Each structure stands twice: as C-alpha cells, then as structure tokens.
Amino acid sequence: MKIAIVHDWLNGMRGGEKVLELLCDIFPDAPIHTLFCDRSKLSPYLRSRTIVPTVMQKFPLVKKLYRHYLPFYTFAVGREDLSGYDVIVSISTCIAKGFRRRAGSLHICYCNTPMRYAWGFSEQYFGTGLKRRLIDPTLSRLREWDRRSSDNVDFYIANSHNIADRIKRYYDRDTDAVIYPPVDTGFFTPGGAPGDFYLFVSALTPYKRADLAAEACRLAGVKLVVVGSGPEEKRLRRLAGPSAEFIGWQSGDELRRYYRTCRAFIFPAEEDFGIVPLEAQACGRPVIAFGKGGALETVAPHRAGYLPEGIRAGERPTGIFFAEQTAASLADAIAKFNKVADDFDPAAIRENALRFSKENCKEQLRRFIEGKIAARG
User: Fold this and answer.
1) What value does the mean pLDDT take over residues 198-209?
2) Contact criterion met (CB below 8 Å) for 256 and 276
C-alpha cells in the first residue's frame, strides 16, 4: 500500500511540523509532498526524508516571498497528481488537503485550521486599507476553492474542538476525531526559580499581538522579555520602551531556561490551538491568555480572571484569562495575576501539560489512521 504525506509548505519548525515528524515516525517510507521547501530551516529528521515540492519551488525567491505568491497556491497544487498513492495523509492549514488523488484512494486530513486568510481572519493579515481591497478578489476565490476542496477529504482530524467548530461552520463537515498537537514534555520540564519578568514567545507578526504584550507590560510597570523576530520588531521596540527586552530567537535550551524562570507567560493572540503556552506550562509556569480560541482548551483559568461563557474556573488553575484584545484588559489581568500568584502550583500546571505529550498524540494518530486504513481493506 503506497502512502503519501502532504504538508502545506516546509520553511520552519512550528506546530504543524511537529505533527509531521510524528506521521513520519508512523509511516517511515512515505514521501512528503509540499508546495515548496527550505531544508535549511527544518529539523535534521525532516531533512533526511524524501521531500517532493511542487513547481512553486522554482518560483523566484519563493523561500523569502512565498506570502506574495498566495494567488498561485491553488495553481501549483492543481498541477500535482497523487493518483499513484493508495492513502494520503495531509496536514492542512491552507492548501494541503486540495492535492489531487485518484477515485477510491483514502484521504485523511489533520486540519490545523480552515484557511485563515479566507475565513474570518483576513484583517489580521491584510488590514482594512488599500492592501485589503486589492487582495479581496483573491480571497473570494480562495474561499470558494477551500470550500470545494474540503470534499476531497474522507476523514477529518481536528487539532482542537475550536477547529472542529470551524470545520463544521465553513465546510459543513463533521470532524471524525480531535487529536491535540504534540508538546515535548520530555524536554520542557520545570527547573530553577521564577524571576521578575513576563515572557512572550512568537514570530513578531501582526496577528500574534505582541503589541498587546508590550503595551500592557508598559502600562502595568512590569518587565517583558520577547523571544522571536519578525517584521513588527521595530514598531514594537518603539511601543514597548525600556520595560521590554527583545532577545530574538533562542536555542531550545535557552528557550526552556526562559520558560522556567518567567513570572508568567503572556499569550495575547486568538490562536487555533497554541503550543507555546503548553511549553510554558510543561515548565511549571502559569499563563495569562486571551480568553478565546485554543487557549480555552489548554488553560485551566483562575477564578480571579475573566471566565468566558461556558468555561468554569479550574480547581487547580494553570493561568488567568483576559476578556478583550486591548492593552488595558491585559494590563488588568496582569494586576489580578499578581494578587493571586501564590495560588498557582507548578506541579499542577505541569500535570495539565502532560495531557498533550508527544506520546499521547502519536498513539492517537496511529490508532485512528491505521484503523481507517484497515477498514478500507
């Protein structure tokens, strides 16, 4: 039985790539098909795999300008033919689920989200001005393609109940399983004493909302350490002032040290799931998160903070929510956290993170996919 793994693109090691590594463990002989690939930014394990890029690999400066090629994504996918495979397992945030296959083959999609550009989050990427108006026709075509290509999938695995709801809303499809992405709880472990700084870890792009973390910490009069880099960095430095320290990307060991010694981790974005808050929790540190999106499934909130409708305070809290994506709301949550900081037990926080371990994710993926393959005979 010939099996192919499909991924949107490969130019870094984020949550989707961590799922990809597990699928490569499960199917060691399966090639990876993808839009384009920058091997220099992949883990040694993924670099060792057979990777088959589309024609987009030959586009000028694609590794740097791939976002500008958005209107051509569906063109590149449409030129690929995976009819030689019996089983396709895709990891889709954008277009991976749309690769062509033959009738009668099996397609299982691990969906990180329906295409964010097209469904409800376009302002976070393109704003509301001229750039947005210019891109609107492309987004309209992408929405239609995304909806139509959703029928190319036999079974959907959602990375969270949050994404299962989106699959139902945008594709009118039920999710067949919810399997959370993996957290390396064996590497991210407690150690050392917490310091006096708050921590933010992310690429510095608009929708990650580092601006909220920077401005809120300035308002609250607390120190912020920012791990990451990106196009927003210059603006964020001006906004944050001297209360923030920007240290760029860090090695795994250094990142773990910052997780272990932060006072709390700040997570101001509305994420599909969000692995970094769980890495912080695996190190025993509490999280201050926007009360929407994936954080509702990964943080047990303290009663002192905002409690979204249907969410109950955790008996063993691991963080605190804030209600609005404003600096004032986040600064207020920081003040509330400081009053109840002694209520957070590092052991309980880590225990919560262990539910999302790599081992749990891999075993659930294996059981689900092999079960569907066996049912097909």
Assistant:
1) 91
2) no
Question: Which residue, 191, 40, 172, is CA-closest to 119?
Answer: 172
- Domain membership of residue 203 (yes or no) is yes
Q: Domain tally for the chain? A: 2
Domain residues for the domain of 207 are 197-354
Q: From the CB of residue 182, how many other CB atoms can be counted at a distance below 10 Å?
A: 22
Residues 6+ apart with CB under 8 A from 171: 114, 147, 150
In a domain? residue 237? yes
**Whole-angstrom Cα distance, residue 199 to residue 225?**
5
Retrieve residue 174's tokens: 């039920």
Answer yes or no: do 107 and 234 share one domain.
Answer: no
**For residue range 41-81, what is the model confidence (pLDDT) as tens digits?**
999 999 999 999 999 999 999 998 888 888 899 999 988 88
Say what the pTM is: 0.87
- The residues, any chain, with a CB within 8 Å of residue 276's CB and separated by 6 or more, are 201, 202, 265, 267
- Please tell me the distance from the alpha carbon of residue 328 to that of residue 215, in angstroms, as a whole number: 9
